Each structure stands twice: as C-alpha cells, then as structure tokens.
Amino acid sequence: MNRDAIVATAAELADGHGLRQVSLSAVARAVGVRVPSLYSHLQGTTDLMAGLTALALTELADRGDRALAGRSGRDALVALADVHRNYAREHPGRFEAAGALDVPVTDVLQAAGARVAEQTAAVLRGYPVSEEEQVHAVRLVASVLRGFVELEAGGAFGHRRPSSGESWTRVIDALDGTLRSWSSIGPT
C-alpha cells in the first residue's frame, strides 16, 4: 500500500459510487485496513481529494496529448472535446474531481492542470485568437465543454429529442464558429 494505490482506490470508488461517497473510511474498507493506517500515506481527506484531482487531470491530459497530436483547427477542437466527453463517460467520478476547486493546489496538481489548459491553448493556435484574448477563449472552451458534459452526465438532456449527441455536434459547430470569428469580437 502506498499513496498512489490509495488514490487509485479512491478513483475507482468515485467512478463506481460518486465522488461524494469517497471518504477515508470508504477507502480504508476498500483496501482492507483501518483508517489510521492511511495516515502513513496521506495527511487526511483534503490530501486524498487533491491526489484524486491530480490523478484525474493527469489522465485527462495524457488522453489529450494523444488525441491532439498532429491536429489543428476544428479537428483539434473536436478531438479535445471528445476527450473530455469520453473521459467523463468512462470515469464520471474522476471527471467530477478534475473540476474540483476546493482542494489544496500541490505541485503535481498545478502541473496537471497546466497541461490541460495548454492543450486548450494549443487548439486555439488554429484560430484567430490573439495572445491578449487567449485567456478569455480558454475559459469559453472550458466552460462549454465542462458545462455540457456535466449536464449530460446528470441526465439533463435525456428527456427530449433530439439526442444529446446531435446537440453535442451543434455545440462544437457553434464553438468552432465563435473561435473562427474571434478576431471580430472585441472588447465593448
């Protein structure tokens, strides 16, 4: 048993039962030890959650690196968007953890988060987004992707037609169009 194995167990619990169900007690039961034994490897619940967030962001960044290789423009945007959506479907608890804002920022967490943000910035290099505007565009892309994926995962789009898949395509088309015309969008 080590910190990585404990965090991996927490990730499995998050995916299987929901992030809110992850606790030191639940992890200790899953690995067959008592809670005090975990303190040899963790400082507590917030440390566990920071590790889980870092793991999720690292996995997301690894997938993004593979998906974005050799792509630009709309192809890169679609690849990035699909990485986020597919990761959320395969690892719902981890995806939720990847968006956690209430965990202490460790060096590992900061590096993983920077990789994810850099992937979005790399996608934006295929669009007419100036360096001064890049932060705004990164925030737009992140908000659209996370918002859609979270709403879809929560069942918000399952109650009527057309399918969420059709809406996903339209959302990506709209995001692509917005990014293509970014240079004409200026501060008001």
TrEMBL record:
GO terms for molecular function: DNA binding. This is TetR family transcriptional regulator. Residues 1-60 form the HTH tetR-type domain. The lineage of its organism: Bacteria, Bacillati, Actinomycetota, Actinomycetes, Propionibacteriales. The keyword Transcription applies. Keywords: DNA-binding, Transcription, Transcription regulation. It comes from Nocardioides silvaticus. It holds the Pfam family TetR_C_33. Residues 23-42 bind DNA. InterPro entries: Homeodomain-like_sf, HTH_TetR, MT1864/Rv1816-like_C, Tet_transcr_reg_TetR-rel_C_sf.
